[in-house]
From TrEMBL:
Entry similarity comment: Belongs to the tetraspanin (TM4SF) family.
Coiled coil: none
InterPro entries, per database record: Tetraspanin/Peripherin (IPR018499), Tetraspanin_animals (IPR000301), Tetraspanin_CS (IPR018503), Tetraspanin_EC2_sf (IPR008952)
Pfam family, one: Tetraspanin
Record keywords: Membrane, Transmembrane, Transmembrane helix
Spans through the membrane: 6-28, 40-61, 67-91, 209-233
Gene3D superfamilies recorded: Tetraspanin
Name of this protein: Tetraspanin
Compartments reported by the entry: Membrane
Organism ancestry: Eukaryota, Metazoa, Chordata, Craniata, Vertebrata
Length: 248
């Protein structure tokens, strides 16, 4: 039952990644095929874990060695895969960081409130900037690469970046700058948050690193216990000795 619950949690997490439309995960999921692939992998692993939990219970109750062996093998494969994925993420973190910068940079550069085709992606990024109180990836200067703002001489700024109370109810699109300097402006003239979202995301990860590691360790311990128990049960199941059966 414990492994079926674990499988349901992993399955639910994968579905959440695909269904979420209002967070930083949504920005990555809609921009990067690799995250979407990862979500499908999580769904597959979750479904497999639930199935293995059922087969493990069935094998233990009915003392079926092949089911217990299959259960042990699948758990070992899942555990090895999780460890490998963790190592890849750790050693490729700089590459992942560059990929995130590229994704968000492209999104900011091509941000257009009138583009309905990219509305979900743009709304997700606006939501991130509003909720985290940040602007751009490295900082507000990133928005100086936006094509629409360049054409308007930077006399507008992204409303979701605003730190002004008058823009409190506006969290998408562009807002007009009250006092443009000689008809032009820079990001330094905008009433926006100075901190970039990269720093905020990194801070969130550092603040929640203990929880993330604790959950990952807990899952690994549960899987190891399952492997140990399945091997113990398998060894304690004695095959019938047909040599002792009386001959007719």
């Amino acid at each position: 039952l414990l492994f079926q619950i674990l499988g349901a949690v992993i399955l639910g997490f994968g579905i959440w990644i695909l269904a979420d439309k209002t967070s930083f995960i949504a920005v990555l999921q809609m921009s990067s095929p690799s995250l979407k692939t990862g979500a499908y992998i999580l769904i597959g692993v979750g479904a497999l874990t639930m199935l293995m939990g059922f087969l493990g219970c069935l094998g233990a109750v009915n003392e079926i060695r092949c089911l217990l062996g299959l259960y042990f093998t699948c758990l070992m494969v899942i555990l090895i895969t999780q460890v490998a994925a963790g190592l890849v993420i750790y050693f490729q973190k700089e590459t992942l960081k560059e990929e995130l910068s590229r994704i968000v940079g492209s999104l900011i550069e091509n941000y257009d409130p009138s583009n309905d085709d990219e509305r979900n992606l743009q709304d997700a990024w606006d939501y991130v900037q509003t909720q985290i109180s940040c602007c751009g990836w490295a900082g507000a200067k990133d928005w100086e690469s936006n094509k629409i703002l360049i054409n308007k001489s930077m006399t507008e700024y992204p409303c979701s970046c605003s730190n002004s109370s008058k823009d409190f109810q506006v969290d998408t699109g562009f807002c007009n700058l009250d006092v443009p300097v000689n008809g032009t402006a820079t990001y330094a003239d905008w009433p926006v948050h100075e901190q970039g979202c990269m720093d905020s995301v990194e801070k969130w990860l550092k603040d929640n690193l203990g929880v993330i590691l604790g959950v990952c360790t807990g899952v690994a311990v549960i899987e190891l216990l399952g492997m140990i128990l399945s091997i113990s049960l398998c060894k304690n199941i004695h095959s019938e000795d047909y040599t002792k059966v009386p001959k007719s």
